[in-house]
């Protein structure tokens, strides 16, 4: 029940209580007769709602229904009473139907209590329950006998039969509810009774007392219609309904699921309440020694028998626990005895299994890494001086793709098939093992020279690369092999494995189904790669990076129009490394994003300085890698630099590779619109080197096409190359895009480009990449003004100190 609904219900209860109490206090028979059925119906409604929202899988769930039907019967009785009293004008007390409905209220309450008791008591200790029933019912009935029946059998019989069968049923029901609830409450030794539960059973308990009191005053002819007795009737029903309301609001399971919390065994806590009974009897009817002794005797006998039962229960529990412990010990001893007899066989079996699991890969049934390395050490130690050990380190190509696409179960089947093929390829003095994942190793002990090792590697690749058919799927696996030979390439098993692994890495870099024989040049390249990776892992590696700048000119006028920023790594040995040597590794280690942002900031600061200092409008070109375009940090850095008040976005030219331009139309559109919205120009770098598609040129207005250096190199000696360059220039002019030629190294290349109509050039012929201070001194300062124009003579070119035929490393 929601909180708002609960509060509304409470307000309704309070308002009705005040109105009804006022009517009773002012002896307004009319309003009491009108309001009584309304109150009965409220009680019926809330108890019915509790029934609807209770757990229907529990049998005691129907208690709520019986309680609600009791209130409904009282509603019919009070309603008929009001009709006969107000409308018909007859005496309602003479109407048997009204008496029947009042009696049915007692019946439904009695059945509800009996249903609840039947479920509660079956979980309790029966001997103690019988003792509680005899004692507490005796005390309660004795108290009722003294107070209600004036110690008179005649009064009891008359009161019991005053209204015939209806009074008999009603009083019996009252006594059952009165005594039953008292027994249940006083018998509980364990468990916390919820508040709503107290209201429900308390309301029924006081209803039974009220009904007994009604027959008492009726018998003594002191009953007054619509007096405190009728007020008590209605209040007890509302008390039961209020308990149901609390159950709906605060207890989702209702009391019917909490019976396991209650128990009639344990420490006494409530029995002394029974001492109030003789005191109440003395106060109401006076002191009679015999009655007092009867009360005291019942209480004393109960305490004595209860102590005996509690002691018996504890002894029984101890005995049961002792038997349980003995049984457990006997089972343990029997198990130990049996296990001792089976230990030798089990240990032997386990040792065999352990040996198998420790030496064999359970999936492929090949030897595992541990066994292979141990065997390799032993083989090297026992190797004859004229023998070699050829180690073939193998790795499957694109195996991860099979796992990700078809699932690991299919991947396992592929590994099993490859393992079987490798096992069939073994011969005497050879061992094959799975190192883990999709890596395998094959070792051959004997006289195997370099050429024979190559043939063996080719045979292994041929065997394993044959198509694999699993169910309805066909796989074409690839295999790369790294080969290392003991003792030519290594003197220890660890170094032999390491060198084979290095060779494998080199083979994989060449493509699929490749092999590589170890030599020390491969090792040197690997060491250099490791050096670069260690450099990139340093937090301050930016201090070793530096930007070089290569000038860009327009032709034929020879005017300096800008420069391209090219990154260099100045190693601690003062060796300059170009991007070709470390950018790919930076992309693999995800350092390219940090490097790219550093280049962007450095280049922007430099172009701001040069253009503002010398009053120029030069353009700075920077390269953006594909991985940078996938990073949000790049776009944030672009937004940051545009906030610089002295920076003009037109000073920056973003160079993207042709592969990015052909990646996807949606991605290219996003990239293009971003740069254009900032105001930067966009160039296509290395145009003509890939499998170009010119369709994207008509959809996006690029600012420049940078003709790749291989095309520039071929156009002088190859007529077809010249025609390709000419076609690119004509295409660019047709769609209104400038062209710039990269890597111009000779005067002849410059002349051909001028003849073909190329607008811009850069290359060693006009200026190699150089640090900022050299660039500024040569092209921007007062001393370098002569170099801002190419001129028409070769004097300017001589100042660049170009060696004829030299190929620049850019």
Automatic annotation (TrEMBL):
Residues 525-783 form the EAL domain. Pfam families: EAL, GGDEF. This is EAL domain-containing protein. SUPFAM superfamilies: EAL domain-like, Nucleotide cyclase. The chain crosses the membrane at residues 7-28, 34-52, 64-89, 95-117, 129-148, 168-188, 195-216, 231-251, 272-305. The keyword Transmembrane helix applies. SMART domains: EAL, GGDEF. Keywords: Membrane, Transmembrane, Transmembrane helix. The keyword Mitochondrion does not apply. Residues 387-520 form the GGDEF domain. InterPro entries: Biofilm_reg_signaling (IPR052155), EAL_dom (IPR001633), EAL_sf (IPR035919), GGDEF_dom (IPR000160), Nucleotide_cyclase (IPR029787), Rev_trsase/Diguanyl_cyclase (IPR043128).
């Amino acid at each position: 029940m929601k909180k708002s609904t609960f509060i509304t219900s409470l307000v309704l209860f309070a308002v009705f209580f005040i109105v009804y109490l006022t009517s009773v206090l002012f002896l307004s028979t009319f309003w009491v007769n009108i309001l009584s059925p309304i109150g009965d119906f409220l009680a019926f409604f809330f108890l019915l709602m509790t029934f609807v929202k209770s757990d229907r899988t529990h049998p005691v769930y129907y208690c709520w229904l019986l309680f609600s039907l009791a209130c409904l019967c009282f509603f019919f009785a009070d309603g008929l009473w009001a009709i006969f009293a107000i409308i018909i004008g007859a005496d309602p007390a003479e109407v048997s139907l009204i008496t029947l409905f009042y009696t049915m209220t007692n019946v439904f309450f009695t059945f509800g209590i009996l249903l609840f008791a039947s479920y509660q008591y079956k979980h309790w200790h029966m001997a103690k329950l019988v003792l509680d029933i005899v004692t507490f019912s005796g005390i309660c009935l004795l108290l009722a006998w003294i107070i209600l029946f004036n110690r008179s059998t005649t009064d009891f019989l008359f009161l019991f039969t005053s209204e015939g069968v209806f009074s008999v049923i009603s009083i019996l029901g009252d006594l059952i509810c009165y005594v039953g609830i008292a027994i249940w409450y006083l018998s509980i030794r364990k468990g916390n009774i919820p508040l709503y539960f107290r209201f429900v059973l308390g309301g029924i308990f006081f209803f039974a007392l009220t009904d007994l009191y009604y027959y008492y005053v009726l018998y003594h002819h002191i009953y007054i219609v619509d007096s405190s007795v009728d007020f008590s009737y209605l209040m007890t029903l509302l008390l039961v309904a209020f308990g149901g309301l609390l159950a709906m609001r605060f207890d989702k399971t209702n009391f019917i699921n909490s019976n396991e919390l209650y128990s009639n065994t344990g420490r006494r806590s409530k029995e002394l309440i029974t001492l109030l009974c003789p005191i109440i009897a003395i106060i109401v009817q006076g002191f009679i020694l015999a009655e007092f002794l009867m009360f005291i005797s019942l209480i004393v006998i109960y305490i004595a028998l209860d102590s005996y039962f509690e002691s018996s229960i504890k002894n029984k529990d101890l005995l049961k626990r002792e038997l349980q412990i003995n049984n457990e010990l006997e089972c343990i001893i029997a198990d130990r005895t049996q296990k001792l007899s089976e230990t030798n066989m089990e240990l032997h079996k386990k040792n065999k299994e352990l040996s198998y699991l420790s030496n064999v890969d359970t999936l492929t049934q090949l030897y595992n890494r541990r066994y292979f390395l141990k065997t390799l050490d032993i083989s090297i130690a026992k190797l004859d001086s004229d023998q070699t050990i050829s180690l073939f380190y193998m790795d499957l190509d694109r195996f991860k793709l099979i796992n990700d696409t078809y699932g690991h179960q299919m991947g396992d089947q592929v590994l099993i098939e490859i393992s079987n093929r490798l096992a069939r390829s073994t011969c005497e003095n050879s061992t094959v093992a799975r190192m883990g994942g999709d890596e395998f190793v094959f070792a051959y002990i004997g006289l195997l020279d370099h050429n024979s090792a190559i043939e063996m590697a080719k045979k292994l690749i041929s065997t394993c690369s044959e198509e694999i058919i699993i169910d309805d799927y066909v796989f074409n696996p690839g295999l790369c092999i790294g080969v290392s030979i003991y003792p030519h390439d290594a003197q220890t098993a660890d170094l032999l494995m390491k060198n084979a692994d290095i060779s494998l890495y080199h083979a994989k870099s060449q493509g699929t189904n490749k092999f590589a024989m170890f030599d020390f040049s491969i090792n040197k390249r690997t060491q250099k790669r490791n050096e670069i990776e260690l450099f990139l892992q340093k937090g301050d590696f930016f201090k070793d990076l530096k930007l070089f700048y290569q000038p860009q000119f327009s032709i034929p006028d020879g005017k300096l129009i800008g420069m391209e920023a090219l990154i260099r790594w100045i190693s601690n040995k003062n060796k300059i490394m170009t991007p070709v040597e470390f950018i790919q590794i930076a992309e693999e280690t995800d350092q390219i994003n940090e490097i790219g942002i550093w280049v962007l900031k450095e280049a922007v600061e430099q172009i701001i300085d040069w253009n503002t200092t010398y009053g120029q409008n030069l353009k700075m070109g920077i390269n953006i890698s594909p991985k940078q375009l996938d990073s949000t940090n790049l776009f944030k850095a672009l937004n940051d630099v545009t906030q610089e008040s002295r920076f003009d976005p037109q000073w920056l030219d973003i160079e993207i590779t042709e592969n990015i331009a052909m990646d996807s139309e949606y991605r290219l559109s996003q990239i293009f619109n971003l740069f254009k919205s900032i105001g930067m120009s966009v160039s296509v770098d290395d145009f003509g080197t890939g499998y170009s598609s010119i369709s994207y040129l008509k959809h996006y207005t690029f600012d420049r096409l940078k003709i790749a250096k291989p095309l520039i190199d071929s156009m002088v000696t190859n007529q077809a190359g010249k025609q390709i360059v000419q076609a690119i220039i004509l295409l660019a002019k047709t769609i209104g895009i400038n062209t710039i030629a990269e890597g111009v190294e000779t005067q002849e290349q410059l002349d051909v480009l001028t003849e073909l109509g190329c607008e811009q050039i850069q290359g060693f012929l006009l200026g190699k990449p150089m640090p900022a201070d050299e660039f500024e001194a040569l092209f921007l300062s007062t001393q370098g003004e002569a170099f801002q124009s190419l001129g028409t003579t070769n004097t300017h070119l001589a100042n660049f100190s170009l060696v004829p035929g030299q190929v620049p490393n850019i």
